[in-house]
Amino acid sequence: MLRQKNEAGFHHLYDNYSGALYGVILRIVQSKEYTEEIIQDVFVKIWNSIHQYDAAKGRFYTWMINIARNTAIDYLKSKSFQNQLKNQPIPDFVYENAELSTTNNSDFIGFSKVLESLESDKQELIDLAYYQGFTQSEISEKLNMPLGTVKTKMRNALMKLKDLLKDFQ
What we know:
By secondary structure, the chain is an all-alpha fold. The protein is 75% helix and 0% strand.
């Protein structure tokens, strides 16, 4: 239905996945205003690139989360976003961040319970990469760990997470 660009398929996609993708994006950008802007871009990207999805390479949901995550990270790194932050009045910026830090927006799909099952070092890697938007190179620098070690540990963390998620299906 989606590959044929059927409007009903798009509505089904949005109705069933917008909440989860919104949560992923909000966790990265930490702003409801920016998240609402990004979620629109994410669904346009999914709609326009649906022909690129390959079920043999992974689950549809995982594919969409990666699009959402990458779009959010790209947005944070964009010059226009960086300029908006620089031009924002300090009191408003502080107020927004204080409000967000007291709001529990980290668990839109019950994922935090699954993450708690991982060892703390694996949790940290997942948090840095998927919630804070760090690249593996940035994680390597932040944790003062060789890039190869970060890649290996990240792969192990994702494999463990995949095993844990099998129980939740």
